[in-house]
Structures are given as C-alpha cells and as structure tokens.
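Hi! If you just cloned this repository, the fastest way to understand the data is to look at a raw example. We've pasted two of them here, unedited. The first protein comes first, obviously.
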Amino acid sequence: MAALSLLYVGVIFSVLTYHNKGSPSKITRLSSLALNGAVAVLVGVIFAGNNAFGGFERSWMHVGDMLVFFIVVGILSSRVCQQDAEWANKIPIRDGLGINCKSLLVLFVIMCTVKILALTDFVDPSMILADGLKLTKLAHYMWNFVAVLVLEVLFGLFFSLAFDDDASHELMIGTIVFMTLVSVASIFGIQDYMSDMYGMNGRGIWIKLGIVVGLCVVGIVGGRISGRRNTGYQGVGEGTSLNV
C-alpha cells in the first residue's frame, strides 16, 4: 500500500513537471508544494528509525532513504529560494466549474482531505484486514505513512486546480484513471487477506473501479463538449497546451 502510494505521488508530480517544463513560474509553485511534501516524507523516514537502533527500516535502506530525501529537499529548496524566481498567480477555483475535469479535481481534493483525517483519526487500521490477521507495529506505522503520501497527492491535485490550465486538469484525471487501474491490479491477488468492510475484495473493488473510471470519463468528455463553447479552453493535445 505504501509502495503504491509512493508510485502515485511520483506519477502525479512527474506529469505536472513535464507538462509545465516551459513555464518557470509554475515550476516554482510546484517546487514549493513538492518541498512541503518532501519534508513530510523525510520526517516520516526519520520516525521509521534505523533497525540497528530499534527502528523499522534496515540500516542501509534507512541511510539511503535519508540521503535521497535530503538531496530532494535540497534541490527543491534551491529552486524556491532563487532571488529572481517567478511565481505563478493563483487562478480562481470557481472559474470554469461545471461538468468537467476541474470540478472533479475539486471533488478529489475534498476526498483526499477527508481520507487523511479518516486514516489518522477515525478508521481502525486493523479493520482492513481479514478475520484472524493481526496488525503489527510496522503495519501501523506504514498505515500512518500512507496518510502522509495522500497529503502529497493532495498537494499535486491542488497545484493543478489552483495554478494550472485545462490540459493539466485533464492530465490529472487521466492519471487518476491510470493509477486506479494499477491499484486494482496490484491488490487483485491479495484480496483474500483483506476485509470486505471497505469493499476491497469481491465485487466491491469492481464497483469502485467502475465508479471512478465512469466519473473521470464523464468529466473529460463533458469538459471537451462544454469547452467548445468557451473561448480559450484547451484540453490535452489541443493547441499548444500540452507543452510538448
């Protein structure tokens, strides 16, 4: 679950970085949000601890993770702290809402916020396991670490919503569809070890997949249709909005 969440974060920020590679002001804003996320993950690695001193992570892996995230924090800090750095202006979130990807991003941002609160304060992690299985201390830590990664996903979606264009909104929705398919494929073989309370096995997982993919398709198609009536709307692959 943590590995999948890390992949989710990596894909979202990679797509956003590539899409905005020609816009220094947006890259600065994205770097600022990514810096906050990188610091949060670094703190999580610190709290994981070195196995040699009673922590969870193997000694060499912990040292490697610490070095990697120190480097990431340093790179992002150097970008944000440039004296001549340009900063993109915030786009009013209310503008352009409708049956489109931007409205879906608002929904997903709210869902991520609720999920973080649920993971940390309202949901018992042991309830996700099948009957007879126990939650270890390491598993409990990883559960909380996933909440940190969901926070990073929230940062990426918020950047697209508040600072980026229509094409970025479509890219984020497309990324959510892709990662939803990857998520289902990754847990398909271990459904027997998961509780049916949250619909993680049996028909529940397919119902969730259908709902998410269906909503995303409606958002993309609806945005394209309504966008034809709105001057300046450019989806993925339309005009020069993809920044390729």
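Ok, and the second one:
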Amino acid sequence: KQWYQRRVAITAGIFNFSNLDKSTKSHLKNVYACVAMEIIIAALGAAINCYLKSTVLHFGGIIGLFVFIYLTASSKNTATPMKRLGYVSGLACCLGLESSYLLDYVISVDPSIIVTAFVTTSVVFVSFTLTALYAERRSMLFLGSLLSTALSGLLILSLANMFFRVPSIALFSVYLSLIISCLFVMYDTQLIVEKKRLGDNDFIWHSVDLFIDFVIIFKDLMIILTDKEKKKRRSNK
C-alpha cells in the first residue's frame, strides 16, 4: 500500500506543472487531446491504404495534406472550431495515407518494428515535452534559429542526395532529421506556452506543430529500425 501511495505521489508531482497557470494548463490539455485525435485518425488513414494499396489515395494524401494545412492555418478567424477540427482531421488522414507506402514496406520486413517505433516515439515525445515544460521559461526558444538553419541544411543535403543516391548520406539524413525533430518538440512546446501567455488560444493549430513532430520522429525511427533489421539479416546469412 505504501509503495502504491508513493507511486501516486511521484506521478502527481511529475504532472503537477506548478509553474503554469490554470488557463495555460487547460490550453495544453486541449492541444494534446487534438494531437491524440490526429494520431488516431492518421493511423486509420494509413491502415486503410495499407489494405487497399491505392496509388491514387497515396498521391491524393500528399495533395490533400497541403490543402488541409492551408485551410487549417487560414481559417482561424473565419471558421468555427468544429469546422477547423474537421480540417485538421482531414490533414491527419491525408498524412496517414501519405505514410502508408513506408508502413507497407516496414511490414514486409518486420511488422513488430511499427510497434517498437511507436512506443519509442511516444516515450521520446513525452520525455522531451516534460523537459520543455519544466525547463526555465523561454530557455528553449533560442533553438528556433538553430533548428531553422539545420532544417535548411537537411533539405539541401536530401535534395543533393536525390542525384548522388549515396545510402550512407541518406541514412545520415534520417538520423539528423530525428535529432532535429526531437529538439523541435521542446521548442514547439515552449513556443505554444508563450503564445498562450500572449493571448493566442488557437489550440487546433498549435496541435498541428506537435503532431507533425511526432509523425516525423515515428517515420525516422521506423526507417532506422528497418535498416538495422535488414543489416542484421544480411550478417546472419
């Protein structure tokens, strides 16, 4: 009984967030509820196209992703919250459809990689989120310029490797993307808190930033784990 009470006390202490005011806590609850909804919808979209294996749905997801990002971002002052939740649900579904080819490939290598990658992504996401929430106010915001520069470098490296097609560079790009995305979780979390303190209550759009961070980490981990599994099988032959 004492052990259980100690665990409850520790858990309550971890999620106390006494450094945040009540309205910010409420805002973050809405943000993370949206992120959870988006993950579920993306998973459904991916599962549907993994089953159908439709090229039309895959490329439709890519086009729809940009359309729904625009609709969600531009409708802050013109659409009702329910309508914008519809937009963000469409965004999540399209991202799931777009990711289905990667998931299908991972399944062909080892289906358990998806579970491992998802659990690891969840742990990483929660850990970096808690780090940002307990860190000193605005202490992570300096990462903005550094991450933007790193992202630009990653984009240039990826575009260049489309012509050279060097496997080691491609894998290095994935590892670099993983590191950048993890740091973006901390940056975006503190940025959301600061935006809320400045009066920005758009929890729907704020959730999109964190949702995209989560998906990129998940994809990168799947690619890394799949590469390791393939190398392991080759070495065992």
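That's it. A detail worth noticing about the second one: Residues 37 and 89 are 8 Å apart (CA to CA).
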